[in-house]
Sequence to fold (226 residues):
Amino acid sequence: EPEVTQTPSHQVTQMGQEVILRCVPISNHLYFYWYRQILGQKVEFLVSFYNNEISEKSEIFDDQFSVERPDGSNFTLKIRSTKLEDSAMYFCASIGGGQETQYFGPGTRLLVL
Amino acid sequence: AQSVTQLGSHVSVSEGALVLLRCNYSSSVPPYLFWYVQYPNQGLQLLLKYTSAATLVKGINGFEAEFKKSETSFHLTKPSAHMSDAAEYFCAVGRTSYDKVIFGPGTSLSVIP
Fold:
């Protein structure tokens, strides 16, 4: 069964550094999403992306965040200058091809020191 | 705006006992409803979904949920708990299959031998 993949699985960075989280959505999907889950809390929506542009973003998704689909397969989330509170699990999801459910990747655990 | 509440942040059941995890939602349109399970240090796995077809939905691992519009509920049940069911369970709602998914706060299920 096709699946969404994410790299890296874990990343440790220093506060103020830039990080790029990578996702490979399922190949025939057209809608892409990023969510995050701070440890012990619920999963929160960050941003949705369709047709090479952001279709919706939450209040969490401020100017420090950006998303990009640099080629036909990857979908990235960039955090320009990380803060301690950006420490979380970040999930990528995708949907398309007549599916009714978003497929979630395994997540990237980001730790900002 | 859509929202999800889950009654009980932590539920304990004995092995072999009925599992009942409660979920109530608010939505201005007929919703898409989901239950996801998250095992420790893992990603999100879809248990089942309601997308305006049958109100009783069967999912994986013996779980099922019933959509009750009059009660705005989508409770998750399993007749007989197994030790392997111990995990965090998230109820979630979306307006359409392509809309962002709004997650509830989660219920941690413990199974006592």
Remarks:
- The radius of gyration of chain A is 13 Å.
- Chain A has a mean pLDDT of 93.
- The CA atoms of residues 40 and 88 of chain A lie 10 Å apart.
- Chain A touches chain B at residues 31, 33, 35, 41-45, 48, 50, 56, 58, 91, 93, 95, 99-102, 104-107 (CB under 8 Å).
